[in-house]
User: What shape does this take?
Amino acid sequence: MNTKVLIRQYDEPPIRESEILRYARCNEACEETLVLLRSCLEEARKVLTYKVCFSELPVNINDHICDFGFLSFKSESLSKNLCNCTSVILFCATIGLELDRLISKYSRLSPARALLLHAIGTERIESLCDVFCKEISAEQKLLSRPRFSPGYGDIPLELQKDILAFLQSHSNIAVFLNESMLMSPTKSVTAFMGLYEK
Amino acid sequence: MTFSEFLRDNIVILDGGMGTLLQSKGLKPGELPERWNITHPDVISNIHKAYFDAGSNVVCTNTFGANALKFSDAELDEIVSSAIDNAKAARRESTSPKEKFIALDIGPSGKLLKPLGDLDFEDAVALFAKTVKLGTKYGADLIIIETMNDSYETKAALLAAKENSSLPVIVSNAYGSDGKLMTGATPSAMVTMLEGMGADAIGANCSLGPIQLRPVMLELLENASVPVIFKPNAGLPRQTENGTAFDITSDEFAKEVASLIREGIRVAGGCCGTTPEYIEKLSTEISGISPVPVTEKNISVVSSYSHAVKFGASPILIGERINPTGKKRFKQALLENDINYILSEGVSQQEKGVHILDVNVGLPDIDETSMLVSSVCELQAIINLPLQIDTADTIAMEAALRRYNGKAMINSVNGKKESMEKVFPLVKKYGGLVVALTLDENGIPESSDERFAIAEKILDTAKQYGISKKDIIFDTLAMTISADNKAALATLTSLKRIKEELGCNTSLGVSNVSFGLPNRDAINGTFFALALENRLSAAIMNPYSSDMMKVYYTYKALKGLDENCTEYIETADSFASVPPTVSAEVPKKDTVTSASELQRAIIKGFKEKAGELTCELLKTTAPLEIVNREIIPSLNIVGKGFEEKNVYLPQLLMSAEAAKSAFDAIKSHMPVGEKNPDAVTFVLATVHGDVHDIGKNIVKLLLENYGFDVVDLGKDVPPEVIATKTAELHAPFVGLSALMTTTVPAMENTIKLLKKSAPWCKVIVGGAVLTQEYADKIGADKYAKDAMDAVRYISNNK
Assistant: This one.
């Protein structure tokens, strides 16, 4: 266990149906879609868990080289994002493996349900990240920059390997990486969040 | 003294944390601790020695992450050899008078197994096997598999240990605060699987402190017939000014662990945050406690990846519908390799309330082994019920048992010498509750005395293989009363005698009793009730039969097995209903009305209704006419709406599903194996390295609705597989999907290969990252912006 990594578990963040529909590419939901969405939500809510593991890192940026101690890489976009930040939180958040099982079940049996469960998962993980980032910035009495994930801008996805190993995500919150640098559970997020003074 | 001998009569003290101590000695974040066996042998050896001195009987080698994913074969060899040498040096130097053993430590691979992750089960077995072989070669006394949070990976590691070493193996899992493993298994499910496979001790370690783990430990103790291991953290981590610390002192730790040792724990130590001080206090605290004897719990039980199902108290229902016998549509699904049909049978039976699913996919024209394995893997990926592996082919049986994530029910063995010789070794190796048929070389005896005698013979033979009677469940063979009106009596008498005189559980394929008679459900229901009254433990039955379900729920209510009659009240309404294939809601016979109703049902996305209405229409209308006049026009209306942005994706899919349900109804009216000769073949896959399949599945559904013969190769498919299959089928169209920029090169490679081996085919690409420009660049024939776009393109170019 890494002594610098902390774990938090959250209650269900408020659900935003309109966001879910947006992720499902549905600008206007008919009655039948809403009935299906609510049935999917009922099923999904029973299995979702909200976990985050994170670590606070010093910010050391020179000439676009972002040095976080355990990891150092060149990124113009992240340097820009973290400009004037006093510290950075590196985190991994997940809503758990069971939703993947449900999605996989319905991709075989009902693609419409699978689509909505996907959308629910995306909305849920984003909401979890919002809750976490808001909480940290309140605790530290600092403002936060938009979170920045590997794969955004010029941060290579390959960094996932080092990041998840550093956060010990598989033993802390059961987030694994596959050969294509994708995470399982699929509805998981890793990101840097810069904090700066008001 | 060997470890097994010591374990039999003593409380075994394990060591405490390693990682936390190594960090305090300078191990940096990200540095692999296993390398310290080679670079810092003294540090490692001193930690082991400190634990031996503190009173540990067993130290675990510093090989938690020593596997072939992280190290080359040569380095792995050196690490394991040094790690064991370090432990041996500590044992030599420790002055502790206690018995001292060295455990080869095996932790999780850090990868998630398929289907949720990407590590194949057999690859995981091979991975652990390498470490096991080295540890055995370099002289470990036992193997400890620990901190596993996935039941499937635990099985892979235990199988590797059993297949490559004769050392004792103890297995410990990491349970979360919900009392389950990360992938969902309860402690009793883990006991069931691990004991079935022959683990020498079973337990829990890491993740929580001794107080939080208490309920998990009590459940393990209640169910295990082998010693139970307890190796908790030093409480829960909390944040301090100097980083993280654990919240339990060595005194509290010793007290808490000792209290559980008094309740039966036989192997104890500490995990994260514990130090030699914790072990010393624990060792002192328990010095006067005598070990609680390990007792045989005699529970007949099977398990899935999530839970255990016990036999004996309340009757168990085993759903019989995954079986081609007498089912035209199911046979067709098997011949067409239509796994989704099998899955939907599983899901519907689960919804009806069965506890276990029988899986029988034997058919003369198919490769039963591969079909059984893929059915088992697919079913256990999405349904949490234990499975009954039902096959006469012991090669298929072994392959399925190996891949099964839990302890399966096995159907079946019988009193024939050959059957027992083939099946019992599999039960012993993989674990299982095996159905034993009371027949032998002389056939099925008529009398209950003879059936009873065969049961005794089977039990004796099982014992010689080390299989206890709790793992045998007798089927006294229901035979039809239309051939012999005393047949049911013999079956019933045998049931009662086997339960009362041999103490074994029983199971019956209930519906066989009525073969050849009209209104079979009536006979089956009454026979089921009689069998239950004669102590039947489990029935292989049709859960769609309301007669059977009525008997089940009323029996439980009447026998005091249904508290407050809750289950009965919840289900009572359903007993009166008619079977699911005929709708009570659609009494209309008027074809004209039904036709427009079918269109409406499809457009609105009413799946069940679309199926029911089609069945109704088929009584008066030719299948092709329904397709051309009703289904296709409805699909066109919705498809057009989608393209004009009046209909959105969820609704498009709901309509497509309703249309599919209509097609399924039509399909079940057609002769088996008959295909539309004009159907255009379309090979579909998500490319290598990519596991996103939602887009691909949407395209598949729509194309099937438009009558294409879709061959879905799945996700993460290597270019060679796609090219070979396309060439083999001479498919005119191939659809490739990719979501990520990183997997577009795999798409490009696939197209290159296709142009070589199947130059006639048109390649359509789609997915979130693709654009027309990208598609042109990688040589695709068509970029489809959505599923309807693909349908239009193929319809215009076929």
About this structure: The longest helix of chain B spans residues 73-93. Chain B has four domains: 3-285, 312-571, 591-667, 681-797.
